[in-house]
Design a protein that fits this description.
7 helices; mainly alpha; about 180 residues; single chain
Length: about 180
Amino acid sequence: MTIEYSSKRWTTVYPTEKKITICKTRKFTSIDLKRLCAHEVWRHVLRAANGHSQPLKIFAMGLPGYLSTVEGMVSYFEYKTGNMIPEMMRDYVARLIAVDSVVKGLSFRECFDILAGFAFTDDNVWNLCVRVYRGRGYVKDHVYLEGFYKVKEFADAGGDLKMLYVGKVGIEDLS
């Protein structure tokens, strides 16, 4: 696994290239470092590596619908380890509202105005809107909140979270 600096705003894992890119201008707090390690390495990298070691490559590529489980695991483990800052859950809800705005065909400005009504700073609202409206609509962001509740419900019901590390599978695929 290599780690490279990037001019992109986001930290991203490229499992097939065995690479993580990190925004070279971003300032990280100590909680950011813990969250990123848990998010990128212990969830995405580990599941991808396990998936690539399976005889069926679908475990590396990902079964349909796996994304909400993997992002939900990230959120759930941040929550369970005390690394989820309160603003993060609020951010997940705002992302859901922004995705809903894209799906409904609202403009960037309309979405901005909706989110501004929830007492976010203008900078925070701008970043949320840019994140979701990039490339004509990055609508995957709803999966963080959806997945969090799905994984929490699974774990609370006694589900074995270790089973989810076989590769890129969803909770629905375990049976």
